[in-house]
Amino acid sequence: MTKNTKIIHKKESVAIIGAGVNGMFCAYYLLKKGYQVTVIDKNAEGLTSKNNAGLLTPSLTPAPKISINDVINALAGGAGPISISPRRVVADPIWFLKAAKYANDESQTQRIIDMGKDSLKLYTEFFDSEKIDADVKKGVAAFYSSKEEAKELSKKYNGKFIGEKTITHLGYNELHGGIIFKDEISINPVKLFAGLREKIIKLGAHMELGEEAKLYVRGGSVDYIQAGTKKIHADKYIVTAGSWSNSVLKSAKVNPYIEPARGFSILFSTNNKTIISTPALLEDYGIAVAQHSANLVRVTSFFELQGEDHNLKKKREEWLLNIIKTHLANYRNMRIIGKYYGFRPCTPNNIPVIGAAPEINNLFIATGQCRLGVTLAPITGKIISEMIDGKPSKKYKWLQNFVKN
Ligand SMILES: Cc1cc2nc3c(=O)[nH]c(=O)nc-3n(C[C@H](O)[C@H](O)[C@H](O)COP(=O)(O)OP(=O)(O)OC[C@H]3O[C@@H](n4cnc5c(N)ncnc54)[C@H](O)[C@@H]3O)c2cc1C
User: Fold this and answer.
1) What are 157-191's pLDDT values in tens digits?
2) Which of 23, 132, 208, 227 would disulfide-bridge 18, Cβ 3.0–4.6 Å?
3) What residue ranges in 258-399 does DSSP mark as E strands?
């Protein structure tokens, strides 16, 4: 060997189950650190990480509050954003009892808000350095029917209060108070998904798409992943399988305790008209509206705890369309061009499960981000990549405790 020969130490290999936004951000940070990464997904096209509202708004973490009346209404099949299937409650009453216990518990809220803010900084760095076009819009609003409620919440959430006149100017009707978060952003999730996938492939990720993966565990370690006919061996393994994480982790005897919460996105063309000039959450209804480009508006809603059911009831869709008809001044220019759904991976206590799996020495888990899964994806990827690199963040040590629950 000559004096000038460089010795390149190839870092370890990592295999990731789940090519959603969380799996891809884990891959992104690991690739940047020099790891060899394989990402496996049974669904080649993506689902939840494409079909969401795309609002990166950590300040709104505490909203919405779910009251006991909402739960009774949801169980009775009433109109509204929340729906709960009694069949699902019977199947796993403990999850629902725990969720009821934690519904209005704000003890961990500030930690999640801070985590979201750290993630937002990583998004800014990511978009600046990678030049991915995801229709990024700065400034997101939350609107309310009650001016007083908006005023009060603007103080609690540290946003700027705006009155009805300004709201009307932004393209919305019959909403009497709002809050603007000028530093929070909206993205087009379809473009983020595509840009991120292209980026990790460019960085060298090996993708195994279209086959269901199974973890094989032996003597306290993951031995390999079986995906179709392929056996994938790696030094370390990550499960970022969203709403399917419980079943993927069964062979490792870990239960992250995820319940899928379905939501819908409806896309509209706009006849090239500006419908709204600021993306917003209509908080009284749990509906989000964003105009990504000159001819594309996305409306999202529903939090449905009813398992992996794929049918949107006509009555519920009509409820949604009636509300946006009332509150979007330019609704007449909107034409439906697509309807999509996704499943938020939710824990009963609203705390994500991010960390090393207990008693399996080469397995890491990142799931349970629920309504904030896109917002928290970069920080999730960073936390996991630092753990794998043997330099775990002290700041996020608290998240690991929940893996054992
Ligand atoms: C309507 C709606 C609106 C939302 N709005 C927002 C929002 O505004 N802001 C926000 O931050 N979040 C939002 N969310 C939540 C967010 O979309 C999710 O939390 C996030 O996409 C979850 O990403 P993930 O990578 O963890 O999981 P997923 O995107 O579900 O990815 C997991 C992947 O694992 C794969 N997989 C599972 N099991 C296996 C297996 N055995 N073998 C191989 N592959 C497997 C799946 O196919 C899937 O592609 C919304 C969600 C919905 C539905």
Assistant:
1) 999 999 999 999 999 999 999 999 999 999 999 99
2) 23
3) 259-269, 280-282, 287-293, 296-305, 335-346, 353-356, 363-367
Residues 33-62: tens digit of each pLDDT: 999 999 999 999 999 999 999 999 999 887
In a domain, 308, yes or no: yes
Answer yes or no: do 341 and 372 share one domain: no
32 and 114 both lie in a single domain? yes
- Gap from CA of 398 to ligand 1 centroid (Å): 23
Q: How far is the CA of 21 from the centre of ligand 1 (A)?
A: 7
How is residue 164 written in tokens?
A: 């009805």
* DSSP E strand stretches across 173-277: 177-186, 206-209, 213-218, 221-227, 230-232, 236-239, 259-269
Residues with CB under 6 Å of ligand 1 are 17-23, 40-43, 46-49, 51-55, 212-213, 240-244, 248, 263-265, 288, 300, 342, 344-345, 367, 369-375
The model carries a pTM of 0.95
Tell me, what's the pLDDT at 190?
Answer: 98
240 C-alpha to ligand 1 centroid (Å): 9
Amino acid, res. 3: K
Ramachandran region, residue 367 (left: φ > 0; alpha: ψ -120 to 50; beta: rest): beta
pLDDT of residue 81: 87
Nearest-atom number in ligand 1 for the CA of 264 is 1
Q: What are the structure tokens assigned to 295, written together? A: 């001819």
The answer to whether residue 6 scores a pLDDT higher than 60 is no
How far is 368 from 203, CA to CA, in rounded Å?
27
- Say whether both 263 and 332 belong to one domain: yes
- E strand or H helix that includes residue 82: strand 82-84
